[in-house]
Amino acid sequence: xxxxxxxxxxxxxxxxxxxxxxxxxxxxxxxxxxxxxxxxxxxxxxxxxxxxxxxxxxxxxxxxxxxxxxxxxxxxxxxxxxxxxxxxxxxxxxxxxxxxxxxxxxxxxxxxxxxxxxxxxxxxxxxxxxxxxxxxxxxxxxxxxxxxxxxxxxxxxxxxxxxxxxxxxxxxxxxxxxxxxxxxxxxxxxxxxxxxxxxxxxxxxxxxxxxxxxxxxxxxxxxxxxxxxxxxxxxxxxxxxxxxxxxxxxxxxxxxxxxxxxxxxxxxxxxxxxxxxxxxxxxxxxxxxxxxxxxxxxxxxxxxxxxxxxxxxxxxxxxxxxxxxxxxxxxxxxxxxxxxxxxxxxxxxxxxxxxxxxxxxxxxxxxxxxxxxxxxxxxxxxxxxxxxxxxxxxxxxxxxxxxxxxxxxxxxxxxxxxxxxxxxx
Length: 425
Ligand code: ATP
Ligand code: MG
Hints:
The chain is of the alpha+beta class and 425 residues long. It has 2 domains: 241 residues, BirA Bifunctional Protein, domain 2 (2-Layer Sandwich), CATH 3.30.930.10; 94 residues, Anticodon-binding domain (Rossmann fold), CATH 3.40.50. 38% of the residues lie in helices and 20% in strands. The protein has 15 helices and 16 strands. The chain has an 8-stranded mixed sheet. The chain has a 5-stranded mixed sheet with strand order 13-12-14-15-16, with helices on both faces. A 3-stranded antiparallel sheet has the order 2-4-3. The chain is elongated and about 95 Å long. The two termini are 50 Å apart. The site of magnesium ion has 2 residues, from loops. It catalyses: tRNA(His) + L-histidine + ATP = L-histidyl-tRNA(His) + AMP + diphosphate + H(+).
């Protein structure tokens, strides 16, 4: 019978890969906790309406990337394509937003029906950060500083550039929209199909077009920064001033708008040229209007999400992923039923007495020779050898597996633990 394969663009993360994932996740958790952030967890499936209303009907994600289905009750549900909308829903529903300050993070799989390629999957993973209740640019700056610190600690900051823009508040964007529509209408015939349609429905989305022709036309288009009102301008200047003081460099990118509708004021992306076309590893911005748009009270908010697959690729490409640890420190070789039982017992005693030492038992018979092969492969530095003869004398052999650890020796079972902890670990 034919084997059933995984779904295209939905990858298994194999035991050889998980150490890098765990390392990355561990460093992110550590940095976030030092900045006072708490973890939140929410479901992977939500009502479709949540994403339509937040991300925007006329965006790539909602128009063509969502995994949407009817459940058995006929409700339209969607596998989350991102975390911000769900996070807002969860916080509002549980009363975490009104008159409160929240610094939150989450991690997990996201789902988008895109064309799978390097750094672009259909099930991918993000670590996201969302903050609520803080209106000034300090928190925008904090989020950027936090990510900058993370890149430094991971050893990848030289390969990353911070791109920064302000897309202004709703009023600024409305003024700009008018100017952009006037400009683009003159070139309507030359726009790609999506952009033509968006010119009517959601013109700012045209700025996010990947079509080369459209991009060419956008070079001479009016720029948003010329349309920022005083409030938007001073928020952005406040952010830039803070980054300057701490010494985080950035590149102003007036074309940066992000692919989701809820953003306003600050938007930013960390990009690299080390991953080919999929160069954005972390992206975010301010979304002061979203909570209200989803039915809550007006609440200032800012957040970002990083793509774990792309960061893992970066760690590997730059050669800064941690060395894989050995599977075991001690391997117990045992031949014969009695020896197998004693091996299990000794292993438990070792784990009890030395919680940081990794102990592997053989499980499944085999000759001394084949078991020593397994011991070697496990990376253990010490083998404990138990055979019928040794057991008869209530002894075990200790055999160092690496050079420089001395000769094999016989030890009474009663002294095994103390000898090992004194002489080997
Ligand atoms: P892109 O422009 O690369 O499509 P995006 O703007 O759609 O990214 P966001 O929704 O802002 O991405 O998601 C934040 C981060 O999540 C991205 O910067 C990227 O690192 C990661 N990401 C997004 N989509 C995918 C995907 N399909 N596969 C892998 N990682 C992804
Ligand atoms: Mg995308």
